[in-house]
């Protein structure tokens, strides 16, 4: 069973059997847990891929057997990191933009972690699923509606698990809020706010102030181009894809002022890219209405100077949580007339409703600094699913729905902020699917 070929056959059979299932029998889980390692291939080892690689190298049951990057220096750096962690040197694939396809042929790769430019995410994830490899793909997993459907169709036909690595779904505070929601503290959920307010101008530009791959998307498109950090926790807070679904989306963008101003101030008024015709507006605001009548306001705000901010707020019939205020308000069972309408600090609630991933699982993970340990927790859960042949913590439907705001907001903005119907990526399954993400039991 432990030979590479047997293991590969096993993985293919197991994931095919598990297709569409939300729970895995405990006997399979127990049997597969014994001694198995997850053998990973990393595609794209630039900034983010290297960071995820470091997180993974701290996890005992993971081995990195292959790395792939079009930049040979990046692949060589990744190989060195793996060797420094005491593992054999992984194979490197650096020949071309499609060399990942050769890597996917390897029998000693059970899963891939994809951290490449956005336009490669869906093609790489689809190719990996077709080769029976578990997929962890960076955000967003798709940037067109066609790519969204390709991911869904490939997952449904192959049965191979595919997860977008949306790390904010695993944040400690967001998971405690999820527990509070599931225990009914806020009553019926009605409305939510979330934002990705993060000045990323120098992630979009190269060292000379010219657009790199990410900046080229700002030149070409006007949309919420980074919708998943905002929507990650919101999906489970609102039972999206398991009881409810996004139905209608309206988006509006400001004009573009921030890129020009930031580039001019840093590089001078003559700097050519400062006067490019950037399509992307500085702040994009989207409004989503669900089939069950809830609404969500989402901001993308990534090219104005400002401190980082998410501004999550979730509101129900009996109270609300505000990340910005670090507070909650609970009306209590007897109703607001019996209680002062005042904020309470979130900290005691965080302690009381802390998720077991943060009280138990985290103790077995070397505590990496990235995003307060969130990324290490995410990679730990990914590796555990791969090595036990069980479903990934986030599924393809949630991954796609978090990402689909990119193309749908673009359509709405282009049409003068017209409402756009959101496709039902679950083909009706949202009506009967049960919540599966981060269950405590
Ligand atoms: N979740 C998070 O917190 C977070 C943070 C940063 C970035 N990201 C995401 O990670 C991804 C990568 O971002 P980054 O900042 O690391 O970018 P980057 O440019 O630093 O890294 C991308 C890497 O992919 C390589 N690459 C490009 N095309 C390739 C191909 N066809 N085959 C193999 N390798 C290829 C590049 O050479 C580079 O090393 C993006 O999707 C971004 O949105 C997520």
Features:
441 residues, alpha/beta, Rossmann fold, Dihydrodipicolinate Reductase, domain 2, 2 domains, nine-stranded mixed β-sheet, six-stranded parallel β-sheet, 37% helix, binds nicotinamide-adenine-dinucleotide
Describe this structure as you would to a colleague.
With 441 residues, this protein is an alpha/beta fold. It folds into two domains: 4-166, 3-Layer(aba) Sandwich (Rossmann fold); 169-355 and 396-431, 2-Layer Sandwich (Dihydrodipicolinate Reductase, domain 2). Helices cover 37% and strands 17% of the residues. The chain contains 17 helices and 15 strands. The protein has helices at 4-18, 26-33, 47-57, 72-84, 100-103, 118-130, 145-158, 172-182, 201-204, 213-220, 228-237, 258-267, 347-352, 356-359, 374-388, 396-403, 405-414; strands at residues 38-43, 62-68, 91-93, 111-114, 134-137, 162-164, 189-197, 246-253, 283-290, 295-301, 313-316, 319-322, 327-330, 344-345, 420-421. The strands form two sheets. The protein has a nine-stranded mixed β-sheet. Strands 3-2-1-4-5-6 form a six-stranded parallel β-sheet, with helices on both faces. Strand 5 (134-137), helix 7 and strand 6 form a beta-alpha-beta unit. Helix 11 (228-237) crosses helix 16 (396-403). The longest helix has 15 residues, at 4-18. The protein is globular and about 65 Å long. Residues 1-34 have low confidence and may be disordered. Residues 43-49, 68-71, 74, 97, 100, 115-118, 120, 138-139, 167 line the site of nicotinamide-adenine-dinucleotide.
């Amino acid at each position: 069973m432990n030979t590479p070929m047997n293991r590969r056959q096993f993985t293919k059979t197991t994931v095919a059997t598990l297709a569409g299932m939300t729970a895995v029998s405990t006997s399979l889980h127990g049997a597969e847990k014994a001694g198995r390692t997850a053998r990973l291939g990393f595609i794209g080892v630039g900034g983010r891929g290297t960071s995820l690689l470091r997180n993974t190298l701290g996890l005992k049951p993971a081995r990195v057997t292959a790395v792939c990057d079009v930049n040979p220096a990046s692949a060589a750096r990744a190989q060195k990191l793996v060797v420094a962690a005491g593992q054999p040197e992984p194979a490197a694939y650096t020949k071309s933009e499609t060399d990942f396809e050769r890597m996917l042929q390897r029998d000693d790769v059970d899963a891939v972690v994809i951290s490449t430019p956005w336009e490669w995410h869906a093609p790489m994830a689809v190719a990996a699923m077709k080769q029976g490899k578990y997929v962890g793909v960076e955000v967003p997993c798709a940037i067109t509606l066609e790519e969204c459907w390709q991911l869904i169709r490939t997952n449904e036909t192959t049965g191979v698990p595919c997860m977008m690595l949306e790390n904010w779904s695993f944040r400690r505070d967001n998971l405690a809020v999820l527990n509070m929601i599931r225990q009914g503290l806020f009553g019926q959920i009605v409305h939510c706010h979330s934002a990705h307010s993060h000045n990323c101008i120098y992630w979009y530009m190269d060292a000379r102030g010219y657009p790199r791959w990410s900046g080229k998307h700002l030149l070409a498109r006007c949309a919420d181009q980074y919708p998943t950090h905002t929507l990650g926790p919101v999906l489970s807070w609102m039972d999206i894809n398991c009881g409810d679904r996004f139905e209608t989306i309206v988006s509006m963008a400001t004009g573009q002022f921030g890129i020009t101003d930031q580039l001019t101030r840093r590089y001078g008024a003559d700097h050519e890219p400062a006067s490019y015709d950037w399509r992307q507006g500085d702040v994009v605001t989207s409004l989503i209405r669900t089939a069950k009548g809830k609404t969500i306001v989402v901001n993308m705000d990534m090219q104005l100077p400002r401190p980082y901010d998410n501004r999550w707020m979730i509101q129900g019939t009996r109270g609300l949580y505000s990340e910005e205020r670090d507070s909650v308000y609970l009306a209590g069972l007897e109703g607001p007339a019996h209680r002062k309408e005042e904020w309470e600090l979130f900290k005691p609630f965080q302690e009381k409703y802390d998720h077991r991933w943060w009280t138990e699982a985290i103790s077995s993970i070397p505590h990496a600094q990235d995003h307060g340990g969130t990324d290490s927790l995410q990679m730990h859960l990914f590796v555990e699913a791969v090595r036990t042949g069980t479903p990934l913590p986030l599924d393809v439907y949630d991954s796609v729905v978090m990402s689909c705001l990119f193309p749908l907001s673009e359509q709405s903005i282009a049409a003068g902020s017209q409402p756009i119907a959101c496709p039902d990526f679950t083909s009706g399954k949202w009506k009967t699917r049960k919540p599966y993400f981060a269950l405590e039991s």
